Amino acid sequence: MIFHVNVYVNVYKICKRLHFVFYLEKQSINYIFATNKLKNTMKHITIKDIAKELSVSVATVSRALSGDKNIRRETKEKILEMAERLGYMPNPVALNLKSMRTNTIGVIVPEMDTPFYARIIDGMQNVLYKKGLKVIIAQSGEDFEREKENLRLMERFMVDGIIIGICHKDKNKSEFQRLITKGIPLVFYDRIPIGIDVSKVIADDYIKTSFLMEHLIRKGIREIAHIKAPDYMESSSVRFRAYKDALEKFKIPYNEELVIESPGMHFEDGIRATKNLLEKNIPIKAIFVYTDLVAVGVMHYLRSQNISIPQDIAVAGFSGTILSEMVYPALTTVDLPLIEMGERAAELILQKIDNPSVGNQTITVDAKIQLRESTEGNL
Cα–Cα distance between 242 and 136 in angstroms, integer? Predict the structure, then answer.
């Protein structure tokens, strides 16, 4: 079954109205406050209660619950049975004070409009959950001030480390450096800051953009427009440079009129950017778009103007979420290994937690170009 882009957009808007994104951002953090609300209605069972019931020492109960092999089997079984009957739960605060760990990792995402960051988080959880670590998620909403608030929130909750995809390449550099100096491990993924030495997981934006552009040019397309992301994103500058270099390689004159900066990273931004582009009345045979969600907006507007894809104008994106396969025609895109990006980021943060002196690393994952009907139909 083929889903029209409007179906996805409408479903997303409904979900957003139902506070689905708000839930992702707040649910884990709200849990931390739950015990305060329950104090007046529920008694917390302690090892003292178990010791009193069995007329044994608190130390004996503690040793039994911690798996001490030197305690008598019969005593241990009685203590474990009583703990289960009373509903005893270990106190995580007390345990954390001993280990100086909270066993939580803070994850900050720029947006949750697409499955892009959700898939990366899936990869992180594949690694972190196996190690007994939980994830607290916060969304910056492409706002660097909210990003700073989220960083300080994670700091207050004493997370063991922070994994972050940033919304601005240099606005919060001093904040990142402050946290690093304080000893809080940081790992960056996808979107990274400039001018600061950090551990990061990235894709080779330049090479993959170059390959995609060369493919379009070798198909005989010379009039290629580019809808780029705002300049505050470093990856936007890299992909734009690859776009220009590919034109130069094939001796195609660069025309700045064919480059439009998207006002944002959403479906509606693709519509607005395409409208502005077409109003210039410049011949266009293809549009390379910074990211898939914006590219979906581009395709929607072209179809609304009865412009055939790819017969009149071919469209290619970058990121490779399920969106690229849901639209019609299916979108040619650079398919990033999102699960792998999340897994590698989680592995880096674990290394930093276990060994604070470990040096910063850069991991570059291998993306694949997926050629689909939006560029491969009858041109």
Answer: 36
The alpha-helical segments, DSSP class H, found in the chain are: 5-17, 20-32, 34-38, 47-54, 58-65, 73-86, 92-99, 115-128, 144-156, 173-182, 205-218, 234-249, 267-278, 292-304, 323-326, 338-354, 373-376
The torsion angles phi and psi of 72, rounded to 5 degrees, stand at: -60, 140
3-state secondary structure of 378: coil
Residues of the chain with pLDDT under 70: 1-43, 91-100, 378-379
CA dist 268 and 32 (Å) reads 36
Q: Which amino acid belongs to residue 168?
A: H
Residue bearing tokens 């276990």: 354
Q: Name residue, tokens 């594949």.
A: 126
220: Cα within 13 Å, side-chain hemisphere:
5
pLDDT score, position 112: 82
Residue 190 and residue 341 in contact, taking contact as beta carbons nearer than 8 Å = yes
- CA dist 266 and 271 (Å) reads 9
The distance from CA 40 to its chain's CA centroid, rounded to whole angstroms, is: 38
* Cα torsion through 204, 363, 181, 158, rounded to 10: 110
SS3 sequence, 226-273? Answer: EEECCCCCHHHHHHHHHHHHHHHHCCCCCCHHHEEECCCCCHHHHHHH
This prediction has a pTM of: 0.75
Structure tokens at 203: 């894709």
Residues 229, 265 contacting (CB under 8 angstroms)? yes
Distance in angstroms (rounded) separating the CA atoms of residues 314 and 376: 8
CA 173 – CA 16 distance, rounded (Å): 30
Query: What confidence score (pLDDT) does residue 121 get?
Result: 95
Q: What is the pLDDT of residues 174-194, one digit of tens each?
A: 999 999 999 999 999 999 998
Strands 199-203 and 224-228, sheet pairing: unpaired
Q: What is the pLDDT of residue 265?
A: 84
Tell me: the pLDDT tens digits for 189-244?
Answer: 999 998 899 999 999 999 999 999 999 999 999 999 999 998 888 899 999 999 99
Contact yes or no for 133/105 (Cβ under 8 A): yes
Tokens matching residue 34 = 């739950």
